[in-house]
Queue: 4 jobs
Job 1
Amino acid sequence: MNLGTEKISKLLWKLSIPAILGMLSSAIFNIVDRIFVGKINSDALTAVGITMPVQIIQMAFILLVGIGTSSLISIKLGEGKLDEAEDILYLALKYILIFLIAFATLFMIFLDPILNILSISDEVLPYAKEYIVIIILGSIIGIPGYCLNNSLRSIGKAGVSMKIIVITSIMNIILDPIFIFIFKLGIGGAAIATVISQTTLTIYIIHAFVKREDFVIKLRLRRVSEEFALLRDSLKMGLPSFYVQILAAGVSLFLNRSLLKFGTDLDIAAVTIMSSIYSFYHMVVVGIVQGNNSICGYNLGAKQYGRVRKSLGLALFYSFFLSTCLFLLIILFPRILVAIFSDNQQLVEMTSEALRYYLCMLPVIGPQTVSSQYFQVVGKSKLSSVLAFFRYGIIIIPAILILGPRLGVKGIYISNAISDGIASLVSILFIVFELIRLKQMEEGLKQR
């Protein structure tokens, strides 16, 4: 373990680059998935976008367990408590399975009412129902690996994480056209390909944690004496991500309803494309966040505040630089980016114009993401939640209510930009104070 000794600039990239490559592979898999779905027709692409609130809610539970346990594992390793770190790893697998089974059961019981809440049109409904049922049921065996994947980075094995995500993403890209077009399974084929690749990742990661001798902690069936105390601490650290996802699901539902009120199904397809472009960038930033969080969590436990401050500062700078680069690409080449997803010229035209409004605050979103995730990993869950709420609901919903009736669909896109801008400025203000605080704590230790 060199999280407490190696040069921060080298260590951050050593952890972040594998995470970035892995997350990029995941983003490419999502993008290619939507490209193939878009080749079926625009209704199929709309089906993926309009069912997104369901997947976001499910992801809330994955992040609640995955982010919380991995953050606590980093801190326990920094404190030298390996047995407790192993207990937390076991609890991560146990409780993500419980949550996924419970979620899938409730989803199937209330399937029709849930689809009615999503306001799906008659044309899109068959595609949406087929797709989301396969995704949710398949996630029981497919998603646990994504939860445990966070813990790979906590123990300094970002390279292992990258390798399996790249392999399974390539697998999904190969399987998509086979199931969609050769087997003629349509959108259901896309969902099946996703489940197969996810399940492969789960099997690999569980096997690695059980068998790899070079892993500092192992995954074993065990009796955890302080189970509920460790679970409580883990879930507490994961709550900000959980709240964000739940709020994001509500915002996504409200956004879809507003798009249908002021526009058409084609506008939801446009947002689906724009979200895919954004996800490509977001995965890069998340890779930096994951590398930074591993360093900060470990060194916070070891009381090396100077290393925490330096890693945080570099992560903020790199995220801003990458955000600005993508922003320039969007401004200069919107049509080229959008045309990758659809041959429908009307959809390409409207999305290319909307993209510049929807993501015009991109340069400051990177630092906002680093900031809110940092406060989560260092145990300031309430502040992390507040910062996330600013971006995912407190601002965007009132903005849509005001601008939607006046500007139509364009008002919805501008509302997203306003929300991103204000939330990012608030987060940056708090992180500046945090950098000052870390400096003071570092100097305090030197004076002892």
Job 2
Amino acid sequence: MKPFAILVLPLGLALAATAFAAGESVEIAPLPEGSVSAEQGLDHWSRIYDVTSSPRCSNCHVGADNLPMWSGPSYGKTRPHGMNINAGESRIGAETILCSTCHIGSNGSKEHGAPGVNADWQLAPVEAAWFGKSSVEVCNQLRDPARNGGRSFVEIAEHLNHDVILHWAWNPGKGREPAPYSLQEHVNDILAWGAAGMPCEND
């Protein structure tokens, strides 16, 4: 599976699709560029960062050490994934043990059982590493085509809509806190931030 699949869409096109894991219908309805002020855009960014920095997202957005993390209130202290797991340069564990060995097609019923989703479980590409990074760092990273898979803000929203593994963040299984807000609200925040020109606090 390629780490980035780019879908080019006209800015004004509104699409709807099913968020399979979250069980909600997600609408991609871009706003006209410039229709959201920079100040409002920063408010939307703040909410986006609430999601990207949450354990459900950041734990797999790690660097070149290829170590997924365990963090968040339900895990106690922040630490690397147990059992000496290393996803390797493949980011799917091909060099040692595949992530899919334990991360199967659905969440288990046991507290903190291995999360599952009907997609290939893997770490985000190393270019998208943001575990432990500040809001300003992640903001500049997410709007940088060299580090976001060459995506526009509309394509970032589409990526969230179509990549089923990302939907798991809002349906993470027993004993885990879901990502804040909802998938639709997160998509809406990305589209509003984009319409504002993707502002960051260091602009």
Job 3
Amino acid sequence: MNAVSPAPVADSTASTAVALQNTLLTPRFYTTDFPAMDRLDVSGVRGEWDALIADLRADNNRGHFIRDARFDSFDASKLTPELRAELLEFLISSVTAEFSGCVLYAEIKKRIKNKDVHDLFAFMARDEARHAGFINDTLKDFGVGVDLGFLTRAKKYTFFKPKFIFYATYLSEKIGYARYITIFRHLQRNPQNMIHPIFNWFENWCNDEFRHGEAFALLMRADPKILSGVNKLWIRFFVLAVFATMYVRDHARPVFHAALGIDPTEYDRRVLALTSLISQQVFPLALDLDHPRMVRGFDRLFALTTAMGAARARGGLGGGLAMLGLRARAAVTFLGMYLVPVKANTLPASARLEPVW
């Protein structure tokens, strides 16, 4: 039995409880230094910035997130209990992540007067709210919608300095693009594996993610010091942490990926390689994803996480002692991966990219 398989979600109370969890694998809510955000200066990337803001203001996706007859005709009773559980866990994790962005972006917009930054976060909050609402409507079809208002009040918030927000959120947006476009392209070629109509919306959806990532790339390129010196060590940490979290989380959904016709290991390697390629627009380094220690490390972290789930379920003194040992082994594994030599990258003259994959 997979010890990290999702627990059954029976109703909205249970789904909200899942969204409230704070673990290494669940999306978190963040807060930051708002006065520092108010002092951001994008004059060094003004031309690219104004073009991006104009793109966001045009809101070409405004009519995209509208449900159609495909949702009405979807028959959830055809899903096996295992597939239903993993699909719901995927959707709850997704709505939590999208709503987390919405809450953070809306709070930044509310707290600052800097017009450049205010406008950016207003547009991104709009997009994330749209995404979260669309996913939550899908969850409500199953009778398990998340109480987003309660989530805002009850979820624990983690404080990150702006530069850490930039690293983590840039990666989240770009890896979100890579994940969604990879699934969308796969289902274009294999429509028989369309297990739910929501995946038809992934192309335009992931283009929103891509644009948001572009914004964080420009914020970082506008302040070169956060991409140099000791900050390279932090970038290295955040890239590895985000990549490892995705790998472990995806491998905990074997039934979901099998139903999509996707091998999670092959899928994750494609997504991580694409995200690594995209991130060369802003990060001065890239992980060596093909290094044997890195390849073994991802699998080992998943095995250790699975064992931690079993120890947690066992409980008691034995389970607690096992958890301590497993956490130590996971930390050693992560450190070994972190110490794999990275590949240096020279930043291109222009930070902007287009979602052409």
Job 4
Amino acid sequence: MKQPERKSRNPLVLILGNKRWQFITIPLFAILCSLLAISVIILLVGKNPFAAFQSLLQGSGFLPKPTYAAYKSMLTDFMDTLDALTPMLFAALSVAVAFKAGLFNIGVSGQMLLSGFMATVLVGYSGLNAGIAKPLVLLIGILAGAVAGGLIGVLKYRFNINEVVSSIMLNYIFQYIISFFINTQFVDPVSRQSRNISQAARLTLMNVEIGGLKMRVPFCILLALLCAIILQIFLAKTKQGYELKAVGQNSLAAKYAGIRVGGNLVFAMTLSGALAGLAGVTYYLGYYQSIQPGVLSSLGFDSIAVSLLGNSHPIGIIFSSLLITAISRGSTYMSSVVGVRQEIAALVTGMILLFSACGGFIRYKVNQSGSHTGKKGEGKP
């Protein structure tokens, strides 16, 4: 008969081997490894890694700075980080939805640009009051992004056009058409960007005075967090969410099980596009208030890596988005205080994503070690 399985004495296997929590423990382990690696690099350039990491946290509002300018404090820095976090969170959730259905939405930047432009033209220049303008901006962003994402899904379903190809092509189409309209109809002759939208339509409240401080208040950060929670419930607890994941894991098996594969592909891309649309309006009509013609936001591409870092888990994406946004926001302060170049912040991000990309391999090795440990305890009577 079988003897009781022996647990591994390797503390790493004990910590990472619990499959229920691997979506948290393995990304954290990857982040820790990346920080150790980047510490070595910072030491090689003659700087103190602890001072560098501390300055990153200070610049993003997680630790206090030694001094502040008038009307500024750690809270104002943190609110700036939350403002930058909002579109990143929406964009990463957009990528995650597509991933769950086995799709790769690389067109988030184009969908952001389309939704931001439509909301800018229809509402940003309209003169509507804030009570009508702000909800209307969100609605237009959702609809414009959903149409763009749904089109990619239809092309995939009806004509079997790879979603990567169609989304990249749509990125270029949106980029050049919108650039033409901005340069010919809506350009600001001084900044060479689109004219600034009205404050009533802007999704970030600027220079709000609270306790003697002037800060940015991101209007939609709570909406972004709520979307992450709702998306997790949808994927984990609903029939539609189960079918969407089943299609992503094995579309052929899902088809034989009676699941509408094509309908779920279109639905997933439509939902992904709607979230990308929310990212677009919170970026172009929130964090910024104008659009630079001929340029796709790098945030749409960064969100792919952020989603992978969060293991495409909506709750994990909240923390991965916060981490990457904090590093990006704190890079300028790190450069000015510690003397570490801003490119090091990009290197920190790159190292984190590189180690996170090995998450599947780490999970395989940990699970393999655990299973081998159990087999040693087997024996015959």
